[in-house]
Amino acid sequence: MLQVHLTPDDIARVRIAAAPDPLWEIANGFHALTADDDRSAFGTWRGLVRPRLGPTDRLLAGLLPSRGYFPDFLTPTASAPHNARTLPSALDAVLGTPRSALRTDLARLAASPLRRRPLPDIARALAAGDTPALHRLGTALHSFYQRAVLPFWPQIRAQVDADRAARARTALAGGTDGLLMSFQPVLHWRPPVLVADYPTDRVLRLDGRGLVLQPSFFCRHRPLMLVDLAADRIPVLVYPIQHSPGWPRPDTAPQRGTELTALLGRMRAAILADAVTGRTTGELAERLGISAAAVSQHTAILRRAGLLLSVRHHKYVVHTITTTGLVLLGGAEASV
Question: Are residues 141 and 60 in contact, defined by beta-carbon separation less than 8 angstroms?
Answer without folding.
Answer: yes
